[in-house]
Write a structure and sequence with these properties.
The complex is a heterodimer of chains A (158) and B (83). Chain A is an alpha+beta fold. Chain A has four helices and ten strands; from the N terminus they run βαββββαβββαββα. Classes of the chains: A alpha+beta (158), B alpha+beta (83). Chains A and B meet through strand 5, helix 3 and strand 9 of A and loops of B.
């Protein structure tokens, strides 16, 4: 996957490689003094159950639109030079990567904070759904209140 | 008017439909649409009334009061769980 766009999103079934994506994201840039990255992965257990497989589905079109909106919101808050999100769908196994967020800025706080902001908003807004295959059967993952709280902290009134 | 309805995730499994096009007469809002779908039977009523429902109209999050327009796209699903 190559792109020259400083702000981009991608939904894909294929695995991604952090090192490769990092180099593609920077494209030889010398102005970014800070790059933050976050990788979300499939855990081997969830809610006291072993996970054999995780299936992710999404709403094509709306998902990409929402992810772009989150990047625009982040640009409005921090002086970012770039941001990239890759989110996988399909069948994943424990240890597989699910999502990658990369942000770049002149200085670290903008990159780190924007990375966390983007991830918190993907959790609550991006139209993905997870189904777990466990030894006792399959189950759809429920939304977590802690994810709502994580998003809300960015919008708390001073 | 004709609208497109999409179902995702757990809700898609519960109603057994991913996508359909329906012709509506008296329906004006999402709430009217939910009432019409609920009348299809117990599986539909259960899926649409028992668990938290999220609604998107033309790929924007919407509520039950949202007004439908000809050829609009309505999506019904549970709270999202990506990331």
């Amino acid at each position: 996957m190559t792109t020259n766009e400083a702000f981009s999103v991608c939904v894909q079934t294929q695995p991604f490689d952090l090192g490769h994506e990092y180099n593609q994201f920077l494209m030889g840039d010398r102005s970014a003094g800070a790059v933050a990255s976050f990788v979300g992965r499939v855990r081997e257990t969830n809610d006291d159950q072993n996970i054999n497989q995780l299936e992710l589905e999404h709403y094509p079109g709306m998902t990409e639109k929402v992810m772009h909106e989150v990047l625009i919101d982040a640009q409005g808050r921090w002086p970012l030079l770039g941001a990239r999100v890759i989110h996988r769908v399909g069948a994943l196994a424990p240890g597989d990567n699910i999502v990658l967020v990369l942000t770049s800025s002149a200085h670290r706080h903008a990159a780190l904070d924007a990375c966390a902001f983007i991830m918190d908003h993907l959790k609550t807004r991006a139209t993905f759904w997870k189904k777990e295959q466990t030894p006792e059967g399959q189950r759809w993952v429920k939304g977590r209140n802690s994810d709502q709280a994580a998003e809300a902290r960015w919008h708390a009134k001073d | 008017m004709k609208i497109r309805i999409l179902y995702f995730g757990e809700l898609r499994e519960q109603v057994g439909v991913h996508e359909e096009f329906v012709e509506l007469s008296a329906t004006r809002t999402v709430s009217d649409l939910i009432v019409a779908l609920t009348a299809r039977g117990p599986a539909w009523a259960s899926a649409l009334q028992t668990d938290p429902l999220r609604i998107a109209v033309n790929q924007e999050m919407a509520n039950l009061e949202a007004v439908l327009s000809p050829n609009c796209e309505v999506a019904l699903f549970r709270p999202v769980t990506g990331g």
